[in-house]
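Sample 1 of the test manifest.
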Amino acid sequence: MTTPGTLYLLPNTLGKTNGNATHPEEVLQIIRHLDVLIVENIQNATRFLQWVGDTVPEFKIEFYPLTKKTSDIDLLEYIKPLKKGKNAGVLSEAGLPAIADPGARLVELAHKYHIPVRPLVGPSSIFLALMGSGFNGQQFQFHGYLPMDDKACSQKIQELEGQSKRHDISQIFMETPYRNTSMITRILSQCKDDTRLCVACDLSLDSEEIISKPVDEWKKMQKHPDYDHSKWNKRPVIYLLYAR
Amino acid sequence: MTTPGTLYLLPNTLGKTNGNATHPEEVLQIIRHLDVLIVENIQNATRFLQWVGDTVPEFKIEFYPLTKKTSDIDLLEYIKPLKKGKNAGVLSEAGLPAIADPGARLVELAHKYHIPVRPLVGPSSIFLALMGSGFNGQQFQFHGYLPMDDKACSQKIQELEGQSKRHDISQIFMETPYRNTSMITRILSQCKDDTRLCVACDLSLDSEEIISKPVDEWKKMQKHPDYDHSKWNKRPVIYLLYAR
């Protein structure tokens, strides 16, 4: 019987960067020697391999596409080379695969077929934001994207604020970057003055910004002539709410 | 006015390791040049600095102790050197500070006194476990330690299983290492056959083991003569439950 390969879960960077504040050397070494890459976007993955300094000639790497919509039948195909002893890596467009990104179903299949799974250390905007917020890191919940509908979104924010206060948990969520301004406006207009809001933007990049303060102080800051709410627009933001 | 220093949130390793599968080069560089270290245990922190290859002579670094019990008055003292322009790092005993570890109150104070806060990339057993589980990474909750009392603990597990199924969330929690055997036994005796349990142990270390399967398959595995439940004892484990 062939010894199966390993399914490595590869961290991506969180945006364009020249240095390396995100990937440990052993992680880079593993990425440099993979046979198969399962990726969201082949072009971006190729660019990532250049950043990593891949030593395998590109034509020797097999690329398989992975999105939310990839069928289970296709995913089973991806398990085959692993069974034959090849090492594969899963890479999402930013941060960690299988966390707020595709990959979990493939990991589930790997476990089912006794393929060793090895998650590798790298940047997670969710965790960097939680650390940097100063909110409760002993109990927290991640909600992904809130509902798009106005009313449902407002209701959800109210619900999260209430749960945070009742159960002492930090609430973490995301928004599509072009709606950051309206999300912040919504939170400030809706949440209690002493509820704390953290906006963590461009994490691990040179332009990183983490602002963490009570809603009433956000409102004061908003009035300052130097402050412009729209600066958050089109930048990746993680939101955290914490009510005590 | 002096430009304030930065409060860096430093990742620690997740156990004894010779290589470096956990710390990016730029993170190591930052750690090598800090003036102040705020740490849970000075002896262990000194050992960590040796692993990092610190270039600042040890007697030039100021160490401040940080535990859950450190008073707010003491924490305010720790802000002073930062205000004077010194760079400080917070280090917990393993993994990331302020996440399932002390540090959050200090980060809160730093924000209050306009000290820049910079979380650095490193290993989090919670996130490595979530990635490696194959469970839902779009929505998840971390609960820290479950209640110690037998009855309350069983109730909590039942509650987590029910919430997971109703809201489609992955549930993540911990247990003190010497009680791992009894925690696994408890979960297997209590949860439904198709609820999935992931036990993620010694993450990022050579002895890493991630077992993720439905409860009924755990029970079958338990009957195998080669399997011994007690192997988990005294090893750091992250637990995940997921019911669909």
